[in-house]
Amino acid sequence: MRDELARRAHAVIASDGAGRDALLRDLARWQAAHIAPYGRLVARAAAAGRDPLDWPALPTDVFRHARIAAHPPEDDVRVFCTSGTTSGARGAHPLADLALYDHAAERAARAALFADVERVALLIVLAPHPREAPDSSLSYMLGRFEAWFAERARWVFPIDARLEAALDEAGDGPVALCGTSFAFVHAEDQLRARYALPAGSLAMQTGGFKGRSREVAPDALRAAIAARYGVPEPRVVAEYGMTELSSQLYERIGARGPRRLWAPPWVRVRVVDPETLEEVPDGAVGLVRIDDAANVGSVAAIQTSDQAIRHADGLELLGRAPDATPRGCSLAVEEALG
Amino acid sequence: MNVAAAEGALREALDALADAGAALRARPRAEIAEALAEAWEELADAERARGSEARERLVRSSGLTLPMVAWALRATLGDARAELAALAARMEPPPGTREAPPALGALFLAGNVFTAAVAPLSVALLARVPVLVKASSADDALPRLFADALAAHDAALGAACLVVSPPRGAVALEATILHRAGVVSVFGRDETLASIRARLPAGTAFVGHGHGLGLGWVARGADLRAAAKGLARDVAAYDQRGCMSPHAIGVDGDGAAFAEALAEALADEARVLPRGPLPTAVGAAQVQWRGVAIARGTLLEGDGFAVAHEAAGDHAPRLSPGWRNVTVFDADLAGFAARAGTLGAHLKAIGVAGGDPRALAAALPVGLAPRVCAAGAMQTPPLGAYADGLPPWEGWRRFVSVE
User: Fold this and answer.
1) Residues from chain A contacting residue B319 (CB–CB below 8 Å)
2) pLDDT digits 0-9 by tens, B56-88
3) Contact between residue B378 and residue B246 where contact means Cβ atoms under 8 Å apart
């Protein structure tokens, strides 16, 4: 059954989403039967006969407390881990097969990021190499980018003089700069020179800061990257990925107007009310729920803590819900939850 | 804001406040207690103008529902006259001493539980210290109404209480306050405490009450329905936002049965004291917390509350995001005490059902000093209750030893 679901998932990805919802329904039923924590989460909805597309999604925190996989640990070929919290507990996403991850990542990046460039001449990665961070899904994906989309690559992490050397290597062909937001901030703090990367170059930043650099507002960071490397702002885009997912969302390269995240067509994105978990209307603030048809071996329906607004032209990500509530001396949620 | 003008105005106000100290120090303590009781009672009474205004403003500023605000005012201030008289008697100088209070005190309030202002404000004035109260502008209704009521009842006492709400980040104004006060009490985040302490002159007394939370304990043989009823009130009060609100409850016995009884009791609470609207940030945390609860054990959800029953382990109790989400775990007395110890100084209160609070207090690891009380009373501490192991007048009373 798993092989059949995986075959269908590949087909849904290859056909840009045809048959997605039918697959998501079947995935929900199969995963509920094979992954106990998810089975318990959806038991009531399933017993009530609700459409599996509307069963509750698995909150990301559960990946920190329970193994979420339909296969035994001995079949793991890779375990991607989150970066952890104050208590040190890290979420883990075990994978028995990387083919679906690769298929989804390549197709999404090709559509959103490398739509107008077959291969860049140089990929500069501001993140650890997969050899140094084998449990980082971002490093793994960027490692695959090197194979899929670049003539050659330079990996620079932590940020040091190697970055200037890599930038000096840029010739006439387009360059892609990809890395974490905090690495771009570190680069901004260290570089003195300004660059004019060749036409067709692009920059992709992902993730927050998590205390690893000073915080910079997204617009300001985008403008700084554009100015530093000589890349037009519409070609400086954000990626939204999570350890618990196999697919990624992107701002599309070259897009004009307000910044919106694009979801690949095999991914269903909803914005839900934090209390009822029902979908909120377009324009209303809620929490992002993602149903990723490429997540066959774990759970496809993932409930995040990220706040967003859905618009007709995409998702406006607002980030983690701000702690706007007065807490005073009561223990802050982050600390309480560890 | 013109900072120089604001600083000048603040200095003048602090001068006037310090001047009011002379009359305050000359007043009999019982008389001060009487005047305080008059002012608090006015706010507790919904039929009087300030009491009515308090309800209206507190519903807007606190995010709590009107029944909850009304309950909180009644529960905190309902017996204030007797408590203030008793507290005044306890605060008389010990034999062989002469009272020598600081000339001026500053009280920094947190915004999570509005009635938390009542005890420290009362104690400051009973200690005969003119007090500047710094409250957040979003949540200064109660101290401001109290100051108005006090001034109306007793102008001399009213002159000894000043409430300010400078904008966030008004460092220069804070510095002016910190350099004039002889004692500074702070309720708030640990980061706020550390920041203020670091800016104080060496001779200033500092009392900090930082991040905290509560636990519940159901002893073996307890009547589970009665225990659930009391602890449900502790959870529901202030929508579980207080530093004494229980986030997890240990049960020596049938934890699953208690969890069910607690869910029923919380449903009753929701009818009497409905929960306020859920902020999105808390909603995000609640979704994650409830999901993990289902993955690890059993979750009983109701309208605006949830009870998780999770298997026992050696780990610290899993704490909730508040807003009426609570974990029940199985533990005997020793196991409960050990897990309570993992919270250290953050543990502010334990509500005990069906057992002797003294036995639990005796079992706690060395270094813990939470308030231990009966279930149902966690959110209504007496005005004279110790907090963080310290008497309420810590830092506010000083004596000259006359030998």
Assistant:
1) 331, 336-338
2) 999 999 999 999 999 999 999 988 999 999 999
3) yes
> Quick one: pLDDT at residue A213?
65
Nearest CB among A58, A60, A65 relative to B296 is that of A65
ipTM of the complex: 0.87
Residue A87 region by backbone torsions, left for phi larger than 0, else alpha for psi between -120 and 50, else beta:
alpha
pLDDT attached to residue B1 = 57
- The pair of three-digit structure tokens given for residue A61, joined into one six-digit string: 């925190």
Express each pLDDT in A162-205 by its tens digit.
Answer: 999 999 999 899 999 999 999 999 999 999 999 999 999 999 99
- Structure tokens of B119? 């005890």
Top residue of B287, B299, B342, B378 to mutate, by most chain A CBs within 10 Å, is B287
Q: How high is the mean pLDDT of chain A? A: 90
Which pTM value belongs to this model?
0.89
Task: Select the highest-mean-pLDDT range: A157-161, B167-171, B219-223.
Answer: B219-223
Parallel, antiparallel, or unpaired for β B347-353 and B371-374? Answer: parallel
**Residue A158, preceding bond cis, omega within 30 degrees?**
yes
CB-nearest partner of B292 from A65, A322, A336: A65
What's residue A338's pLDDT?
Answer: 35
Measured between CA atoms, how close is A277 to chain B, in angstroms? 8
Q: What is the pLDDT of residue A322?
A: 52
A276 touches chain B (CB under 8 A): no
Q: Which residues of A touch B287 (CB under 8 A)?
A: 59, 274, 277, 287, 303, 305
User: What is the predicted pLDDT for the residue at A174?
Assistant: 97
Q: Give, rounded to a whole angstrom, the gap between the first and last alpha carbons of chain A.
A: 37
Query: What's the mean pLDDT in B9-36?
Result: 95
Is A100-262 assigned to CATH 3.40.50.150? Answer: no
Q: With an 8 Å Cβ cutoff, are A61 and B288 in contact?
A: yes
Of A134, A76, A11, A46, whose CA–CA distance to A298 is shortest? A76
Q: Which residues of A touch B109 (CB under 8 A)?
A: 328
The Cα–Cα gap between A226 and A87 comes to 37
8 A C-beta contact, residue A293 and residue A23? yes
Query: What are A298's two structure tokens?
Result: 């774990």
B183 three-state secondary structure: strand
Separation between Cα atoms, residue B222 and residue B126, nearest integer Å: 40
Segments making up each domain of chain A, as ranges: 2-69+266-304, 100-262
The residue behind tokens 């298997």 is B311
What domains lie within chain B, and their CATH numbers? 3-211 (3.40.605.10), 213-374 (3.40.309.10)
Mean pLDDT of B86-102: 94
B218 in contact with A, Cβ within 8 Å: no
* Per-residue pLDDT at A96: 94
| Alpha helices (H) along B209-332 | 224-236, 255-272, 280-296
Q: Does B152 touch chain A (CB under 8 A)?
A: no
